[in-house]
Amino acid sequence: MHVSETYFPRSEEDLAGLVSDAVAKSVPLEICGNRTKSALGRPIQVGARISTRDMRGVTLYEPNELVISARSGTPLAEIETLLAANNQELVFEPCALERALTADAGEPTLGGVVATNASGPRRILRGAARDHVIGARAVNGSGEVIKSGGRVMKNVTGYDIARALAGSWGTLAVLSEITLKVLPKAEEARTLVCLNLTDEGAVSAMCRAVGSAYEVSGAVHLQQPFVERLSVPDIAAIGQAVTALRIENFSASVDYRLGRLHQDLKTFGTIYELDNVRSGAFWSDIRRLQFLTGSDWPLWRITAAPHQGARLVSALWAQMECRAAYDWSGGLIWLEVPPSTDASGTVLRRLIAEFQADAFLVRASAAARASVGVFQPLAEVNMNLIRRLKEAFDPHRILNPGRMYPGI
Question: Last residue of some domain: 230, 259, 291?
């Protein structure tokens, strides 16, 4: 990718002017924040880069209303620190996708989190990042300022537009400001841990737990190679697969629900418990994808029906070596395959279609990402919808062209 200039607008007006100028000159643009996720998605060919990293700062925070607005270049850490000072948090637990590439990826921005819909373990209970976006301002591919949503969930004017921009990877518009719903932090979080379950047994335990009345807010299973990469020393040294189930809220409520869940799962063997501190450290590793660091194997992110996840991996294992970690009760699979594996992912793509799942090639060489469909090929009816969205938001095809799909 050749980039002749990099621009750092400080305001929405500057951003709109830069995009308008690029349209006039027919210059395709890379849209980014701190570029922590620049090696994700398909490689793109552009003439210039626009970074929103200087468009930063919280513009509205009303703790009593559980609402925060910030410019897209605001570091995620700055927002989380402010919320923590008021005992609140981004309840979707934004996951550090960039750490799947390198442990030293830099500081992600709010815009990058929303643009990639980066949702963590609590998604199974509280929803994805896009479910907490209640408003957005952005500049479309014609250099026009657009806005949607508002400061409260019941104001649904244009709300679907804000949700559409979440997960669009900067291909539809450049986010300039985002409004999010926040929630109070849980008073306590504790975790039940089962050791050395098979993938099938772990998914069965997780599905039973998540389907219970006890509001499980995290359900993950790590095969032994992933456990070794955790930063919690005694857990990393276990030398066995780990299945973890989190319950959180008020202490009295946690006590009751944890006890009942423990009883319900006793058929899965000895169950251990992590207290509030160790539970927090463990789930921080899961959210930060610590278990995916330190490997150069190509990495796929697969989403499937939870009860299908272990079956999919088993079918793949019958044809090639692989190792897997399961989040979202088995609905999210992080799959590593050896570098020698067929770079086209032919076998995997076939199984993905067979199990009606979805796949995203996260970690691979630039050559592999250029030749492989990084995002799962969609049915033609869905591709037509995406093309119409691209035409509506970015008719000149200048924003992150081809980052998700060729020509889009």
Answer: 291
